[in-house]
Write a structure and sequence with these properties.
This protein is 36% helix and 36% strand. The chain is α+β, with helices and mostly antiparallel strands.
């Protein structure tokens, strides 16, 4: 996993990559980061479902 911090239209974002060659990274800003934190348990349950 590679984590980078960048800027998009003047706003700080975080970019998550599976590896350095990941062509489709997952990126989001602070508003979405707060939403993820607030709903962490539900997201974790969803990720663990089969």
């Amino acid at each position: 996993m590679t984590i980078e911090f960048k800027e998009f239209k003047g706003n700080k974002i975080i970019v998550l990559k599976r590896d350095d060659n990941d062509q489709y990274p997952f990126s989001f800003g602070k508003a979405k980061a707060k939403l993820i934190i607030e709903n962490y348990e539900e997201i974790k349950k969803f990720a663990e479902e089969e």
